[in-house]
Amino acid sequence: METEEKYFSFVVKTDFHGSHHRFDQCGIVMYLDAENWLKGSVEYENEHFQHLGSVVTNHGYSDWATTEISSDIKTMWYRFSRREDDYCIECSQDGIHFSQMRICHMWEGAGRIRFGIYACSPEESSFTAVFTDMKLMDCVWKAHDGQQPD
């Protein structure tokens, strides 16, 4: 999707039961260009664990944040929210209770952006990722008490 809307949230449920090879992944992405982008996803590692994580890339410099989760988890909800040029990614296993994964500023992210879903198998693999329950809504990520917009 493409938008100039400054305040919104986007929710999606991902199902990746077929992921079985290292680096199989699916989730959400905000892409401006090769030097400026943001993603949140589950990335399969092995039969014991996978990585739930996010990557922020500003001006070509990437910052990764990951945590290990069981490889038995095969569905994940994501909520992506925008407040002008600040962004929040949250995850949930039930689509109701969301936990913050990342809050970040995108230096080039104040104007028109492209965002949505993604899946990839960067090594010699393939799997089916299913995306359902997509919803675009008013921003549910509220400003901190006393914080004015930029």
TrEMBL record:
One Pfam family here: DUF1349
InterPro entries xrefs: ConA-like_dom_sf, DUF1349
Top-rank taxon, per record: Bacteria
Gene3D superfamilies in the cross-refs: 2.60.120.200
PANTHER family to which the protein is assigned, alphabetical: REGULATION OF ENOLASE PROTEIN 1
Protein name: DUF1349 domain-containing protein
Annotated organism of origin: Grylomicrobium aquisgranensis
